[in-house]
Amino acid sequence: MMKWVFTILVGISIISGILTGNLEQVSNAAIDAGGQAVKMTLELMGMMCLWSGVMNVAQKSGLTRKLAGCFSPLFRVLFPKLEAKSEAAQAISLNLTANLMGLGNAVTPLGIAAMRSLEERGNTPGSATQEMVMLTVLNTASMQLLPTTIAALRLAGGSAHPLEILPAVWLSSLCSVCAGVLMVKALTPRAASAKHIPKQRVRERGVTAG
Question: Which residue intervals of 21-156 are DSSP H helices?
Answer without folding.
Answer: 23-61, 63-70, 72-78, 87-100, 107-121, 130-141, 148-156
